[in-house]
Model the fold of this input.
Amino acid sequence: MKNQFKWLAMTLAAGVFCFAQTVSAQAPLKLTLGHNAAPGNPKALAALKFADMVKEQSKGRITIQVAGAAQLGDDLTNISSMRTGTLDMSVNSQGPLSSVVPELAALGLPYAFKTQPEAWKLLDGKIGEELAKKLEAKGLILLGWMDNGIRQVSNNKRPITKPEDLVGVKVRTPPDPATVDMFQAMGASTQQINFGELYIAIQQGVVDGQENPLANIHSSKLHEVQKYISITNHKYESMPFVMSAITWGRLSADDRKLIKDAAKEATAFERKLMFESDEILMAEYKKMPSLKINYADPAAFKAATQKVWDDWEKKPFGDFVKQLRAATK
Done:
């Protein structure tokens, strides 16, 4: 009889546990997504699309509050918040995330990719999976490799046609060691300034210029305070969409799938916007009398930055750099 009662108690307890799990899975869920982009930027638009898809596919049960324009702090702050569980997710940046996974910075080594689709193919394959595992080990779940474009240089001193033109130019770079090494190799003076403060920094002459894809230059209106945009195509940058592993651990299997599926669609949407923006914005910029557009000599820039690749192969993660160099050749 005792065994029967014991079995009954265990069965009831298991039933209550299963019921609690089901109720939890169906309970309303509110999540927060932070990013640093200005309204209208492909990153901002993709974040909103992701939130809309999650709300629709969950029939309103899961809502995502999108806090853009660095409302919750810069990328580094968002990374720290996700790792401690005080922020749920962020469409972040390659440079800041390299502070926890150094290999990420290598994706931005000079002239690694000629086109964005080349980079997407690599990130959607074995190398991207390897980086995702490294992020997970640091408490961050990769939801998608969004795109931060092929980058160009703008400044107020002169057109940048060859590496020597950067000598003495104060260039703002993100907190990304590959970008810093690249510009210092060409003689530029580099400074790290929060992207949200860059417009004023250029306006006040703290820096002469900066480097970004045209979409970022446009959405943050940097063209208003710059005289020259030089098409250097010097590097590619990814934009990892990541979630706190603490938040991920609280989700049911069904909710994880829903989040992943929506993130995949939002990633494809953002990539398309970034890819198409260059042609559209270039046409717009060429019509602006306040701006001068020029095309740099890629061969000279590649030669000037070859040493950066060689130096990075000597780093503790040099094997990854060699793997990336071979894959991008």
In short: The chain has two domains: 26-147+239-277, 152-236+280-328.
